[in-house]
Design brief:
The structure holds 2 protein chains of 2 kinds.
Chain A: H1 6-17, H2 25-41, H3 46-64, H4 71-86, E1 102-108, H5 114-129, E2 133-138, H6 145-156, E3 160-161, H7 169-182, E4 187-192, H8 200-213, E5 217-223, H9 230-241, E6 245-249, H10 259-267, E7 271-275, E8 283-285, H11 288-295, H12 301-311, H13 314-325, H14 331-342, H15 347-353, H16 370-381, H17 385-389, H18 396-406, H19 410-437
Helix pairs in contact in A: 1-2, 2-3, 3-4, 4-11, 5-6, 7-8, 9-10, 16-18, 18-19
Chain B: H1 2-12, H2 17-25, H3 27-43, H4 49-61, H5 66-83, H6 88-105, E1 121-126, H7 133-146, E2 151-154, H8 163-174, E3 177-179, H9 187-200, E4 205-208, H10 218-234, E5 241-247, H11 253-265, E6 269-273, H12 283-290, E7 295-299, E8 307-309, H13 312-329
Parallel strand pairs in B: 1-4, 1-5, 2-3, 2-4, 5-6, 6-7
Antiparallel strand pairs in B: 7-8
Helix pairs in contact in B: 1-13, 2-3, 2-13, 3-4, 3-6, 3-13, 4-5, 5-6, 5-12, 6-12, 6-13, 7-8, 9-10
Classes of the chains: A alpha/beta, B alpha/beta.
Chain lengths: ~450, ~325
C-alpha cells in the first residue's frame, strides 16, 4: 500500500537528485509533487492541496530551501509549519450565552457519530466546566436513535428530553428549551438526525430548528475518515447554517485525517474537538501541530509522550533512575518497567506513534508478540529472590529449574539473561557519559 | 463509439428500474465526475503531460486510490501512444473502457450472494462504526422476506447504546424475528443462540449484526474472529458470506479497512453504503483493483428497497450516462 510518510517520499526523491550537488527549481518541483501526493493520500481535498502546494513552493523557491544544506528536512519543516498555520490555533472554548440556557446543535451526515459525541460533550461540560446540560433527542428518523441517546444519558446520569418519534424536531427543540429554562439547565444539546448535505427538505428542517432555537454553537460532526467529499459536506452545512465549530470523530482509527485540513481550509471554522475512542471521556482538544504530523505520516510523538507521562509512575521512575546509576538494577525492576510499558496500551499502537516506525527495518509489518513479553515475565517470576538480585548466580542447574518453572527452554532463559546483561552495560555507559557532561539528572526514556 | 453503443443497447431495451435507481442515485456522482472529464476534454487541444496531470487530479478527487490512479494513467499513456491519439476527445472513450476493465477485470468472483438452497444461509456483517451495518441488514431482511424466505436477525452489536433496539425496530418493520441478549453480553454467545434458533426454526437466512469497530483495535478484531469461529463451528460451511460494509464517503482509509477486515474475517464481499450521498464513486475502483473482493451490494438511499445488487456495467453506465448518450447520438 502506498501509505509512506512524506519524509520517506522526500528521501527517495533526494536519492535521485543527490549526485547533482545543487538543488534547482526543477528539483523543487519534483519535491512538491511528493508533497502533493502525500497530502492526497491523506485525503486532503485536491483543491486545498493545490493552493497549499503553491504556497509552500513559493516559500521553498524563495531561497529558504535552495540554500539549505539539508533541503529535505527544510521542505518538511516548511510544509509542517504551513499546515499547522492553516489549521489554526487550539480553540476548544465552548460558547456561554448571557441568557441561559446556552444552546448547542449537533449536525452532520449519517453515521458520523453525532449521538455519541453529544454524550461525550455533555460529559465534558459537566466535568470541566461544572455545567448542567439537558440532552435533546431530536433524531426522529433513524430507528432507536432516541433510545441510543437515552441509554447514554442513563449511563452518565444526564436527563434526556424526548417526545418520541412522532413529533417534529422543531417542536421537540422548542419544548426542550422551555423545559431547560424551567429546570435551570445551563446547556441544551440538541442531537439532530444525520442527513445528506444535498437533502433540501432535511436541511430546511435544520434551518427551522436554528431559527427557533437560536443556538450559540452549531457543531458539525465529521468522520475523520471522510475522503474528498468532506469539502462539499462542510461547505454545504456551513453555507446553510453557519457553523461555529467542527468535531472530528473516530480519530482513534488509523486514518491520516486529511479531511481536517480540507474542512478548515474551506469553512474557516475551527476544529474544536476530536473523538478518540468509544468511551464517554474520549473527547479531546484539537491540536493542530499534531494533526499536521499525522497527515504527513510523521508519527504522533506528542501523544506518545502524553500517554507515557500519564502511565508512568513518577516516584517509581525516580527510584529506577537511582538504581541505574548505582548499578543495582535487578530483574525485579526490569519486571516493573515491563509492566509500566504494557499499561500504556497495546505495543503495536505505541509503535505506530513513533515517527518512521513503519519504515524501520524489522519493525514494518511486525506485530509485536505480546505473548513473548508474557514469557519473559514468566521467566523472571520463576527466579528466586537471590537470582533476581544477582543474576550472575544463575548457574546451569538454576537455569534448568527456571526454564521448567516458566514453561520455557534453557535457550530462552539464556537469551534473557544475556539481554539483561547488555542492558546493564548500556546503562553503565550512559551514566558514565552523563557524568562527564553535566550534573542534571539522568532522564529515562518516557520521562 | 461501439463500446458505448454496446452498453447503451444493453440497457435502453430494458425498462429497468434498477438502472434508473442507479442513475438517480449516481446523478451527483455523474454530474461532477463526467462533467469534469468533459471539461477536461474540451479544454485541451492536445494530449500531453498537463492533460494527464489534470486527469490524474480528477481521479484523485473521486477518491480513487493512488496506486489505481497511477496504474490507470500509465495504461492510458501507453494506449495513447500505441493508437497515436492526438485528440483529447478520443481519449474519452479509452478512459471509460479502462474504467470498465478495472471494474470487471480484477476478479472473476461472483457478485451474487452465496445462497444455500434448502438449507440455512448465514451472513455475517462487519465494518467500522457508523457505516450502516444495521440499516443494510434491515434492507436485506426486507428483500429476503419479499422473496418468501424465513429470516432471523442476530443482534450481535451488544456494545453501542441503542443498537439492539435499532435492529429490533427493523425486525418489526420487516416482520422478522430478532434473537438478542442483554446489552453488554458476549457477542459470540448471541451468535450461538441465534444459530441454535435458526436451526430449530428451520430458517432460510440468518443475518448477523456486529458492533462497529475500527480496524486498528486489535482486541476488537480478535473478538470478531471469535464470533466467526462460533459460526463456523455451529454450522458447517458457514458463514456463507462475510460482508464488509463500507461508507462510500470514506477516503483512502477504506482500503485499509478492507484489507484488515479481510485478514481477520476473510471478507467475501463488500456493501458500499450511502452511495446516494457522496459525489464520488471512485473508491469502488480502488477496492476492486487493489483487493480482489467484489462489491456485491450498493446502498442508494434510506428506503427499505434502496439496496441494490452491484452490477459493474450498470455502475459504469450510471457514471457515464452523459458521455454515453452524447456519444451514440453523434
Amino acid at each position: 500500500m502506498a501509505f509512506e510518510s512524506l519524509a520517506d517520499r522526500l528521501q527517495n526523491t533526494f536519492q535521485k537528485i543527490r549526485g547533482k550537488g545543487k538543488v534547482n527549481e526543477a528539483d523543487v518541483k519534483e519535491m512538491m509533487r511528493e508533497v502533493r501526493l502525500a497530502l492526497l493520500e491523506a485525503d486532503v481535498n485536491f483543491k486545498v492541496v493545490k493552493d497549499f502546494v503553491k504556497k509552500v513552493s513559493e516559500r521553498a523557491v524563495g531561497q529558504e530551501v535552495l540554500k539549505s544544506l539539508s533541503p529535505g528536512q527544510q521542505v518538511i519543516k516548511v510544509v509542517q509549519e504551513e499546515l499547522t498555520a492553516l489549521m489554526g490555533g487550539e480553540q476548544s472554548k465552548i460558547a456561554v450565552s448571557n441568557r441561559p440556557p446556552t444552546v448547542i446543535m449537533m449536525v452532520g451526515l449519517q453515521g458520523a457519530g453525532k449521538t455519541t459525541t453529544t454524550g461525550k460533550l455533555a460529559n465534558l461540560l459537566r466535568k470541566k466546566y461544572n455545567r448542567k446540560p439537558l440532552l435533546v433527542a431530536a433524531d426522529i428518523y433513524r430507528p432507536a436513535a432516541i433510545k441510543q441517546l437515552e441509554t447514554l444519558g442513563k449511563q452518565l446520569s444526564f436527563p434526556v428530553f424526548s417526545l418520541g418519534d412522532q413529533v417534529s424536531p422543531v417542536e421537540i427543540a422548542r419544548q426542550a428549551i422551555a423545559k431547560a429554562k424551567e429546570d435551570h439547565h445551563d446547556y441544551v444539546l440538541i442531537d439532530t438526525a444525520g442527513r445528506l448535505h444535498v437533502d433540501e427538505t432535511l436541511m430546511g428542517e435544520l434551518k427551522e430548528i436554528q431559527q427557533l432555537a437560536n443556538p450559540d454553537e452549531i457543531f458539525l460532526v465529521v468522520d475523520a475518515m471522510t475522503g474528498q467529499d468532506a469539502v462539499n459536506v462542510a461547505q454545504s452545512f456551513n453555507e446553510q447554517l453557519g457553523l461555529t465549530g467542527v468535531v472530528l470523530t473516530k480519530l482513534d482509527g488509523d486514518t491520516r485525517g486529511g479531511a481536517a485540513l480540507s474542512i478548515r481550509a474551506v469553512t474557516q471554522t475551527p476544529i474544536k474537538f476530536v473523538g478518540m475512542g468509544e468511551k464517554m471521556d474520549a473527547l479531546e482538544t484539537f491540536h493542530p501541530e499534531r494533526m499536521a504530523s499525522r497527515i504527513l505520516g510523521m508519527g504522533d510523538v506528542l501523544t506518545l509522550i502524553e500517554k507515557a507521562q500519564a502511565n508512568v509512575d513518577t516516584e517509581k521512575a525516580k527510584e529506577l533512575e537511582q538504581k541505574m546509576r548505582t548499578m543495582s538494577f535487578t530483574f525485579d525492576d526490569f519486571l516493573d518497567q515491563l509492566g509500566q510499558v504494557r499499561s500504556m496500551g497495546p505495543l503495536d499502537d505505541l509503535l505506530k506513534m513513533l515517527p518512521g516506525a513503519n519504515k524501520m527495518k524489522g519493525l514494518n509489518n511486525v506485530s509485536i508478540d505480546e505473548k513473548q513479553i508474557g514469557r519473559v515475565e514468566a521467566i523472571i517470576r520463576s527466579m528466586t529472590k537471590l537470582e533476581k538480585e544477582q543474576p550472575e548466580a544463575i548457574n546451569a542447574g538454576r537455569k534448568k529449574r527456571i526454564a521448567k518453572g516458566s514453561g520455557t527452554t534453557i535457550q530462552e532463559v539464556n537469551r534473557l539473561i544475556k539481554q539483561f546483561d547488555d542492558m546493564k552495560k548500556m546503562m553503565k555507559q550512559m551514566t558514565n557519559m552523563q557524568k562527564g557532561k553535566k550534573k542534571g539528572g539522568f532522564k529515562l526514556p518516557f520521562m | 463509439m461501439s463500446f458505448f453503443k454496446k452498453l447503451k443497447d444493453k440497457f435502453t431495451h430494458q425498462t429497468d428500474t434498477v438502472t434508473d435507481k442507479f442513475k438517480e442515485g449516481l446523478t451527483k456522482t455523474r454530474n461532477s465526475f463526467t462533467g469534469r472529464v468533459n471539461d477536461l476534454v474540451a479544454r485541451y487541444r492536445k494530449v500531453d503531460e498537463d492533460f494527464f496531470e489534470e486527469l490524474e487530479e480528477i481521479l484523485f478527487q473521486a477518491d480513487v486510490g493512488y496506486e489505481t490512479v497511477e496504474m490507470l494513467i500509465d495504461e492510458l499513456k501507453m494506449e495513447v501512444k500505441r493508437k497515436n491519439i492526438q485528440d483529447p476527445a478520443d481519449v474519452q472513450s479509452v478512459i471509460s473502457e479502462k474504467l470498465v476493465d478495472i471494474y470487471q477485470g480484477a476478479s472473476s468472483a461472483s457478485v451474487d450472494l452465496n445462497m444455500q438452497e434448502g438449507s440455512l444461509t448465514v451472513i455475517l456483517f462487519v465494518g467500522v462504526n457508523g457505516v450502516g451495518k444495521t440499516t443494510t441488514i434491515g434492507k436485506l431482511a426486507h428483500r429476503f422476506k419479499q422473496e418468501g424466505k424465513k429470516v432471523i436477525l442476530a443482534a450481535g452489536d451488544t456494545f453501542r447504546a441503542g443498537a439492539i433496539e435499532q435492529l429490533e425496530v427493523w425486525g418489526e418493520r420487516v416482520g422478522v424475528e430478532v434473537v438478542k441478549q442483554a446489552a453488554g453480553s458476549d457477542p459470540a454467545a448471541v451468535m450461538f443462540d441465534s444459530l441454535q434458533a435458526a436451526k430449530a426454526r428451520g430458517a432460510d437466512v440468518l443475518l448477523c449484526d456486529t458492533a462497529g469497530r475500527l480496524q486498528n483495535k486489535v482486541n476488537l478484531m480478535k473478538e470478531l474472529e471469535k464470533v466467526k469461529r462460533v459460526i463456523e463451528r455451529e454450522v458447517p460451511g458457514a458463514p456463507h458470506e462475510v460482508l464488509l460494509v463500507l461508507d462510500a464517503t470514506t477516503g483512502q482509509n477504506a482500503l485499509i479497512q478492507a484489507k484488515t477486515f479481510k485478514e481477520a474475517t476473510d471478507v467475501t464481499g463488500i456493501v458500499l453504503s450511502k452511495l446516494d450521498g457522496t459525489a464520488k464513486g471512485g473508491i469502488v475502483l480502488a477496492i476492486r483493483n487493489e483487493l480482489e473482493i467484489p462489491v456485491k451490494l450498493v446502498g442508494l438511499g434510506e428506503k427499505m428497497d434502496d439496496l441494490q445488487e452491484f452490477d459493474p456495467e450498470k455502475y459504469v453506465y450510471g457514471l457515464f450516462a452523459n458521455v454515453i448518450e452524447k456519444g451514440t447520438e453523434e
